[in-house]
Predict the 3D structure of the following.
Amino acid sequence: MPPPYRRALARALALTLAAATLTLAGPTAPALADEIPRAPGHRLVAGYEGAPATASPVPGQAPPQHPFLAPNGRSGMHADAAGSGTHPYTGPLGRSPEVTSEKIAPVGGECATATFDAAGRLITVCGTFTGFLLKLLDPRTLDTLAEYKLPQRSSTVEAITRLDFARIFKDTSGGAYFYLDDQDRVVLADSRQHVLRIAHRQGADGRWEFVVEDDWDLTGHVPHDCVSWTNLFPSGTCDPVTSVMPDWQGRIWWVTRLGRVGTVDPGTSAVRSVRLDGEEIQNSFSVDRNAVSIVSDHALYSFTAGPDGTPRIGWRQTYDRGTGTKPGSVNQGSGTTPDLFGTAEQYVAITDNADDRMNVLVFRRGADVPADRRLVCSVPVFGHGQSTTDNSLISWGDSLVVENNYGYENPTSLLLGRSVVGGVTRIDVRPDGSGCDTVWESAVRSPSTVPKLSTANGLLYFYEKEPNVLGVDAWYLTAVDFRTGERRWRTLTGTGPAYDNNWAPLTIGPDGTAYAGVFNGIVAVRDTS
């Protein structure tokens, strides 16, 4: 039982937050974007460095288009079913780039996954202390066109009542991962352990709204005694749903933090699940025509569905999970969503959590691959004792790109001009599949973003922060040449912790704008010439 003073504090905070929540209830009118304020010091750092790039498309075959997802590049955090982190349209080339932003909330408001409907409107989920907000934004002005309030996560209540805000930054559940389906509907799992399918539509008066079309309850399969303002000290188990994705047959797969893997049949609403005992799943997952690739904090799995939809393990591959959680990781395990890639052969790539140097691991993903041929290569990356990533790799053709997140924990980690050791590496699988080679290494410091590649212009995009002796926290959108690893240009997005990327992805929109989720909302960068 918590001490009396903590129970009293929790009750006081509960009343305060409940009152704040009531003031936010009700329909939301369209709202003009409010710029995120810059912290002092932005005039003391460079606004732009480098020179504009010339588009140089990267040859290769795009990942297969998933029949139940929006077109590749606009369907989810990792851009497609394969988790490639690539976009088929060009991003900014650095030609007089313009930076705009939207402040979502007085504190917090970070917009994580960003997707785009068929008309190019931006659909994102933004986290606030009163709950996640599903938002429809104008892609140019960032004005809010519609908003739908999702339930508050238990980690937020715990953070407030226990004065431990690290809980929020280690929580990947509640809608942070979602996907846009082939009918431009959002599919996500909320903090009540429900899978929702949400459409957006425009009324006769011209106003937009979100409408829940389907609601599938997983609580019969997932423990749900979670902390809330009406249940501050639960005695049972809470297992948040981390992510959802469809398979090639249209089933909706879901995973939970405590290792449950399940499916929902949208036609019958039947729910099936299994559990990976003693394992955690904190990342999203990837899907090809034949299987679902999921990584836990112990192993990489290939799953298929049985006749009734029950997940079945096709193969399981353990990896070096190290002896503890590194600074820059959510848990003691791989921090990557699996990447499905390859030209001559079909591969799946993750990173491990080896103590000294993290390794990029490439496996053959076929169901009939002999155990002694499963591993293609294990490539150590970055410095000794300073190597981890909690973001997905980029994959294109037989190439992989990985960034180093070692040292980043949350928006307080890099205050007063601090940064991470950084580093970005490109690795290619050999054409004959006999191993892998390091192509280039870059010193770019991208503390926590999910980076992206524009295959239309050949540029990689990172969200960079370098050390500053004056204590200025300057954040940059940085473009790197995919072929050489050379930084081509970077532009200042803002200064201060409000512009900290805090694990959110970079996303390239169909109109060529690069979007970055930041602690206080979302930033957009586009060429003006």
